[in-house]
């Protein structure tokens, strides 16, 4: 419209001049535009009005959503996204403990975490371990966890759980009380903590099952006897596997009926370094410690006569309340007594004979005798002199009287407590050597017999010296038979040179 007005105002003759003078034309055009009134505004398109309305509605909706987000929305609940062990099996032999990893969403909504461990039967065996997240990550989780606004990630958190067994872990999230949300619980897979390899006694044997008593002399006549036990006593040998987990060895000696006689404990830990296995001084001369503990000829000090049975019990480290491993038993070991022997048995200094006949004249004192003995034997040897005094020592001498009854028997009985006894018996029998001696009768009423008148009266014979009938009989013949002495009872009186 401005252009048309300018065209009406310009005269035709000026057209040529305008082409020749452009500067004049520009000034005129500018003056015309300035002087012309402004045109009325054109109406806006409908689509622009709709766009403006939509923008206003969107702004109001955004403002309402923001207000709802700040004041009216329910916060998102936290969740356990992952709860798993680093590995399914751990070995206490390698000083391993279970390690657990977990991932939790919305950690800012969580006030407390509880970690528990359960046995397969539901028994609580670990925890609860409490982690307070109200003030951020606790100190004990800082080395293992990272937390952002939306995620808490913990990796390989170690758990102080060394008891062998199977476990299942449970992580419980307790949201902030103001949120009024229910606790969130998650469970891990099964975790196995393998026990240390248990030490086991695979062999326990005595070096010999039969010994002879200490001091027994082996000769050609006793070549079949067992060797004598030494001052060290019975020796035993054993083999133990997995000695690296061994704390002690208990060696117990018993009777076959179960009665305990004694025992000894061998500690296999270095006092300066308890984690290190070491042989005690008492076992160093007899044992080798490698992948197995092998001991040979360990002395036990048992050297008395009798029967013995040994038990060896391995005690593992970290036993706690667990029961001891079953003991290994040896076979029964026997120490046989030293054989007994009657070295000498004498009567009045001479070797005793089975029977003695002792002449004893009427009215004469009954003689006594002396018995002596010497027995070789061991600690179990028992010597008895019967009928009295009974038990005596291995060597001795004793004076004993003869019995007035006419017969006396003395018995020497020796036993070792196991084998049949040795018996030596001596019998003494007294007799009257003058059984038919006549009685002298005074005839003639006091007168002298014919042919002897005036003869002097006979003088009594001098008393004979005291006799030792037992000693005389032994000197005359120690091995006299019954017939050589009994003929004194059958000989006629005139042969006895008896005077009437």
Describe this protein's structure.
With 500 residues, the protein is mostly beta strands. The chain has four domains: 34 residues; 116 residues, Macroglobulin (MG2) domain (Immunoglobulin-like, Sandwich), CATH 2.60.40; 137 residues, Macroglobulin (MG2) domain (Immunoglobulin-like, Sandwich), CATH 2.60.40; 116 residues, Immunoglobulin-like. It is 14% helix and 38% strand. The chain contains six helices and 31 strands. Strands 2, 4, 5, 8, 9 and 10 form a six-stranded mixed β-sheet that branches. Strands 12, 14, 15, 20, 21 and 22 form a six-stranded mixed β-sheet that branches. A five-stranded mixed β-sheet has the order 25-31-30-27-28, with helices on one face. It is rod-shaped, with a radius of gyration of 63 Å.
Poorly predicted regions are 1-14, 443-500
Helix/strand/pairing category = mainly beta
User: What's the helix count?
Assistant: 6
Approximate shape: rod-shaped
**Fraction in helix:** 10-25%
Number of domains: 4
Report the C-alpha radius of gyration, rounded: 63 Å
Distance between the termini: 216 Å
The CATH topology of the largest domain, please?
A: Immunoglobulin-like
Mean pLDDT over all positions: 78
